[in-house]
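Example 3.2
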Amino acid sequence: MPRPARLPDSGGSTDCTARKHAERGAPGGREPVSTAGPDARPEEHDRFEDAYEAARILSGKWVFAVLVHLAEGPRYHNDLARSAGMAENKPLDRALHRLLHVRMVDRTVHTGDGSAPRVRYRLTPRGYSVLPIIDELADWWRATESPDR
């Protein structure tokens, strides 16, 4: 029996849920793991999938650092790397790509008089809207952190 064709960025998965996410544009086309039981209402399952997707996007190693530093205002790539304390560009590029893909960050290319173009990043309204959630997550962590840690 022939194997089904792979979808782009689907990691080789042929599951229809992974295919649905790949078609929706979910990076990596990964299938969310559902803890909802078979009797769960569809809206509960959708809510879980939406929360899972948001957590997956925000779970990148440098994503929070990029969001917090861009909250102070637009930054050029190298300025952002320095302010976030990043020694290498690759992790920053990954985080920026992820945030650009979900429209939390916007980029503008500035071309000068014969010099190399400079890219400036800024938060979009969607990017600003996640900042209170990051603050609440930090508050929750501080409030529930065990003293023996």
